[in-house]
Write a structure and sequence with these properties.
Shape: globular
Distance between the termini: 7 Å
Number of helices: 4
Subcellular location: Membrane
Number of domains: 1
Family: Belongs to the UPF0057 (PMP3) family.
Order of helices and strands: HHHH
Radius of gyration: 9 Å
Pfam family, one: Pmp3
Number of strands: 0
Main location: membrane
Protein name: YqaE/Pmp3 family membrane protein
Structural class: mainly alpha
């Protein structure tokens, strides 16, 4: 995992998921979790981008 990915996972979780996986169900889940609360979105981004 690069430094850029770690920074994006913290600041903009859906963007980091999009850069790794593209448009799909994983991105939709990341967006929903980030909108629900920021921390679940960050945790999800770290899990799917490892």
């Amino acid at each position: 995992m690069s430094l850029l990915t770690i920074i994006l996972n913290i600041l903009l979780p859906p963007l980091s998921v999009f850069m790794k996986h593209g448009v799909g169900s994983i991105l939709l889940i990341s967006i929903l979790l980030t909108l629900l609360a920021w921390l679940p979105g960050v945790i999800h981004a770290f899990i799917v981008n490892k």
